[in-house]
Each structure stands twice: as C-alpha cells, then as structure tokens.
Design a protein that fits this description.
535 residues, alpha+beta
Amino acid sequence: MRLSDFTGKGTVAAAILIMSLWMQTAFAGTHRPAEVRIENQSVTVSTTISGATYLLLRIMGPSGNHIGDWQTTGAPVTWALPEQAENGLYRYELRVGTTPRKARTADTNTAPAAREHVESGVFRVTSGTIVILDPTAEETGMIDNLGTQALTAVVWVLDAIASPAHADQVILDDAIITGSECIGNDCNNGESFDFDTLRIKENNLRIHFQDTSNSASFPQNDWRILINDTANGGANFFGIEDSSAARRPFTIEAGAPSNGLYLSATGNLGLGTATPLTDLHLVTGNTPTVRLEQNGANGFAPYTWDLSGNENRFFLRNVTTQTSPLVIDAATGAMGLGTLAPRAALEIQQTFKNADLLLSYKDVTKDGEPEVITKIEASDTAARMGSASSHPLQLMAASQPFVTLTPEGRLGIGTTTPSDTLHVTGNAFITGNLELGSSRTLKFNITPLAPHDAEAALTALEPVRYRYKSDPDEESLGFIAEDVPDLVATNTRKSVSPMDIVAVLARVVKDQQETLATQQKAIDALQKRLDALAR
C-alpha cells in the first residue's frame, strides 16, 4: 500500500503509523552487550554495558576444539592469534554480567540474579592471518550474477510493458495456491519444486514474524528464522532469533551430525541418537560427557565439572582443579574417591592430607540434639577409626554391641556401661602372661605393710564357693567384695584386687617364715643340748 492511497487526515495518520512500525522494526534489538574489534592478529572485546562485573571471551577452533577462555571483571579482553594457527572458521562467544562477586551461603543457594548478556559470532583465519571482512561488500545471488547489460535490458523491458507488476500487491481476501510456491529474487520461471510446497530462494534468507499488537496487555514479541550469516566468511546455520531482545536462543550449525537433537514420541530426548531409551540419552563414539559450568556471570566464582563414562570407568571430573574426585571401575564396580584405580570396593585417597570418611546422624526434628559422628581416618602416622562426637564407639556382632569405648576412654567388653578403664563382663582367656604395672615409677606414698594389719585382714577374709551369673556352668572360688576387710576392699565395694590379697598373704607368710626360722634355731639349740646329755 502506498501513501498516495490515503487522503485528508488519514494521510497523516497512516504516515505516522507506518513510520512508527518502521522505526520499531529498524531499532528492535540493536543494543549489543559488547563491542568486538577484529584485527589481523587479534580479537578484542570490550563491554558496552554500564556496571559490568564480568566479561568472558571463549573461542572454538575450526575442528570444534576449545581454544580457550579469557575472563575479566569487566575490563577489555584481547586474544592474540597464535603462531601456526589452524586455517578455517573460528567461533567466539561473549558473556557479560553485572552481578557483583559474592559467596554462597549454602550449597543450595540459587537466588536469582541479573541475567547475563550473551553474543556469538565467527571469524576466519587464512595463512596465519585473521581475514578482515569488507563491510561494503555485497552478497550476490543467482540473478545478480547475470550480465549487467542483459539484466538492465530485461528490467527496462519489464518496466515498459508491465510496470504494475513491480508495485506491491494487496489481496483483501484469503489466498489459496494449489501448487507449490517460490519466494525470493532467485526463483525461476518453471521452477522444479520436487516435493517442496514452499521454497524461499535468494542469497539472504530471513523469515520475520512481526507482532503488531499495540496494547500493553497483549504479547507483541517479534521473532525471526535466520538462515546463514549475511557477511562474507560468515557461518552456515539455521537459527531462531528473539528479535525484540536481540538474542538467538536456538542454532543448528551446518554439518551437524544426524540425530544431533532428537525428541521421540515418548518424550525421550536423544543427543546423537534417533532411538533414545531414557529421558535423556547421549550417544557418542568416545567418552560421552556432560559439562556443568558455572561461569561467574552471576557473581559466584567460576567452576566447572564434567560427568563422563567409557569402557574403563565412570567418573566425575573437577575441570577447574584438573582432578577426578569420583571414579567407578567398569570391570570391578569398585569406587574410588581421589584415585583413578580403586583397590577395594571403596577407596578414599588424599595427597598430603588425611583421608577420612564421616558417617553422621542428626535428628532435625529435635532442636539442639547433638550430632552422632563416626570417623575413619588415615593420617601420616596412624590409621584411626572411632567416634568424632561425644558418643561411645561400639563394635557389633549379630546386631549386638559387644565392645563399647566411652568418650571418657573406658573400654567395656560384654557391657555398654564400663565403670573402669577396662571392664569385662564374662570370662577372660589369656594364653600368655597377665602383667600388672607395679614399677616404683608408677606409685607414691610407698610404706611397708604392717604384719598385724596383714594378719587382721587375713583373719577377716572368708573364702567362698560360687558361680557367676554370666557363666552358671562353672564353679569358682574367691571372696565377696562387700564382705572383705577394708584393707583389701575397693572404693566401689564391687570388685576385689588379686594383688591386694597376694600382698596380705605375702606379708603373713613372710612373718610366719621368720617365726618358723626363729623356732627352728631354738629347736636346733635344744637338740644339741640333748645330744650332749646323752653322751
């Protein structure tokens, strides 16, 4: 429709409307987050966003290899073309963030932040030099390649005999085309469509979906389908552009493999396969990998993990530190934490620091309830296993705790409440010597045991026969702890020290031996006198 078709006030209104629509289309999405300057030997990127705190330049080589990442807190980034650079088309990606650096208060902290700005593009390297494209160069199509004079003559004839054909045609009704349709400068008279119903054919291919809604309550975003770059040396791709936001959320590069992205009728998504067997099925010829990259744009420190698997192992790789903290051996099923070759069902290996395993129990329903922690640790001097909290350590058999070590350092065998450093409930069988520490260096207030005290204690001792409740089949001889004299009694009156009884016996026997020796001397003297009288 032409402006001359309007008259009176309608002319002005129509002009304003058409100018408004043109400006909306012309300026939609023109703001770019960064400025890219490509020179013969370098690529420089600087942000155009006020308050930028993050700028990343990532470059991929012609074979899809990762050349590298260059990152700053907003300052310009320059990548210098290395010597012996591979010829071909290079791709770059820019990311600009405005969120200040921050620390995560919890592993689950995913608080929203300002969305980063993303832009991508290509450049070509030939013979060690980045090709600088001529911005004034025009791309030509099939018709443009015809001889200039012949083309001029054709246009002159068409203008002379059918000038109305060059005017826009407005069809004020539904249009039905029963055959195929070709749109574009390079469509031919007698075009062979094969099975194509609609064909778009020229050197620059774009389909623009322009929503002309002018009320704030209605959606009005514009979209485009893009086919290939329009610049010389650009990329070949199929893309979908959010034209209002100047973003391209979807791109398929030319040369992508068959079934690179395949959504089955069941909703399964295949990457590299047309027969996805699970919700997400990734297929490749060598070590399929999923990368999880936190790039730093939202203020958190950049960090990258890879999850991979092949015929040897399944592993989690920390790309940032170049370590593999988790490995599962494909042949044995053994799991390694910190080692690529686990030697047991589970092996934890650390370098120059203790390797430990914690098992913890916490009742989150009870406020202030202490956490129970079990720890197994290998250090540079010892192997340790035990409780890392103020709780006893127990060794169990048949789900029963037979050995208990309390936080106070008391060891109970057959009891969960040991009352001494070693507390055994039941019999103890020893095939070697039982030695009790008795060195002078272990004692103080050492005084001789008086004979009369020993004799009094021995007189008060009442040996008895009895059977232990824990071993009713065997009879024993001994004493009742509550009945022994104070000299040999323990503080608890629940046990008897064999050494105390031995000391009393030794003192009494020693005194008796001295008495017997004195008596023997007297007997010997009397015997001599009798022998003398008998002569």
